[in-house]
Amino acid sequence: MRQAIRVVALFLLLALAVSGCTAVPAAPAAQEAAGSGEAVQLSVIHYFSDTLGKEAMSKILSGFNAANPATEALDNSAGHEDFKTQILVTLAGNNPPDLFSYWAGARTQFVVDGGRLAPIDDLWAANDLDSIIPAGIAAGASTYGENKYLIPIGYHYVGMFYNPEVMAAAGVTTLPTTWDELMAAAEQLKAAGVTPFALGSMNRWPAQFWFDYLMLRTAGPDYRARLMAGEASYTDPEVMAVMELWKSLVDAGYFVENANAYDWTDAADQVANGQAAITLMGTWITGYWNGNGLVPGENYDFFPFPSIEAGVPNAALGPVDGFVMTAASAHKAEAEQLLMYLLDPQVQADWAQAQGALAPSLQVDPAIYNVVMSKANEQVAGAEVFAFNYDLATTPPMAEGGLNMFAQFMNDPSGYADYLAETEAVAAEVFGQ
Amino acid sequence: MARARWTILFLTPPLAIYLTIVLAPLLVSFYYSLTDWNGFNPNYNFVGLDNFLKIGRDPLFANAIRNTVVWMILALLLPSLAGLTAALALNGRGTAGNFYKSLFYLPICLSLVVVGQVWIWIYHPDWGLLNVVLARVGLESWTQAWLATPETALLSVIVAWTWQQTGLAMVIFLAGLTAVPKELTEAAEIDGATYWQSLRSVVIPLLLPATIVVMALAIINSLKSFDIVFVMTGGGPFHSSDTLAMFMYTESFRKYYMGYGSAIAVVLFAISLAAIAFYFRQVRTLDHLYD
User: Fold this and answer.
1) pTM surpassing 0.90?
2) DSSP one-letter code for B254
């Protein structure tokens, strides 16, 4: 009998040891930070996991650690796709990070709605961030509902990146600023044996920029914002017209064959080696091309997406990356220190150059940009609206449905009316709840 | 009595681990399948069987089931036939045979992620091995964007998967062949049976246990098929290569319908359970056969 009890006790002990595995190491770590005079550890998770991004971010964090000996920021990174799933799992768990990088827009809204982020209004007011961050970015990327949540560290601009040599050889000497001029240029390029538009939509998102700009330049930013919020329908005549316009380009043979078989770097290569002339892409393409030895302004350049309807407010498109603080963070004061450090003009400038991005801070000297990035900077400054690209502008389940539609469209544009009806069914489910 | 105690003692650790990392998450996903949880929001509602009703009317679920069935049928045919052929051809061929056995078996040592990446290169529309070879032998018209065309995406992924799985089937059949008594094949030969007659009437029936193992593994692996799909197509283009596991991932982690994703997981679990129950029944029947 006594032995039986001993066996049961042993079983319980083992069960406790196994189930307690996650809780046990957390406790001593917390004590250590609070009790002794050692540095407070800040856990930071970000998605800049490529070689350049990782290096640049780790440089920023070690710079912060050197400047703030009482705090130690711990650098953790995951690839974009993994990050999207991991961060939500981590946030739902018991041990969320203090800070993490995130895409401004609907994705941040999603986490704010879940009550997982801490507002930074006090930090914003105390440091007069309105004088550092441009109003457009502050309103669109940092503010959710009544509160500020996100510190922007970099953003990108989506434009028509082209190969100047190829354009010149085909006789396209003036860059198109209207739809008719764009069509004329495309026809000239095609006649010269060059595919006008490269697109690598294997991972779907590169196709969204066409939808975004066609939408912004025809129905306009206000209508698009309503569509993104579920207040307009994918079967509206405005959306139908956009798809019809897009289809006319595919039908005319202006796009590469099998766009869904390539990724965005394939499309960048096709433009670089002269198979194609133009690709609609974000400024991160400059980082890729510079890495391959192309010279900005000589081997590549961009022009803004031409206007289509007169009287529509001029919009620039792109994503904003930033950092947010978790509601569960136990070291908010230290986390805020790091957020402020990320706004330091030198940090912002270094980051922009490492990423081929634009710096949100107004304190950054535009002289840091190369000729192409400096033009992108002017485009954004001159735009009346800065819009987020589709997958950041609408809620994640809707984005999944829309991106799917773009891939379907690139495969066979003739069925666009059916695809829009299917997408509207997704929208009804997503926004109907 | 003492023996029973020791049994309990030794069983406790694995049982405790099994309960925490297998059974508990299983029960938790059963629980979430009855909610509209989005994966991280602390608040969620009980929706009863709504998620299961949604499964019934979701065309994407039907599509994922269809693809999984296609996968299962091809998984039963392709790697098993290729593995059996390789095993019969290479059995008892000395050093050269061993060399080729190793070659066939090698892909099994690779992670499916690596296999997927290698085959992405093979299928590349411009410079991929497949299209280049087709163009060289005058079959230019056959070349296409294998992974980007909805009609070929699923099959292309299954072919890549088969390339890896053939080695596994071959090894199991080779093990089965060693259990075929030489006397029987020799007797058949003396009786004047041709190679094919001996194969059909002697060898293949005796390979039944190996065949069942291969088939069961094929069914289970096809229900699990996720990693290679994730790497090669992500279920695309537009769901044409979605398997059940891939579809569950998309719903849970891309759309953040964790409740619905859990319901899909429950259905997948039920199907797997049925497949495994069938397997155990077959194994029991076999035991009787050899008793």
Assistant:
1) no
2) I
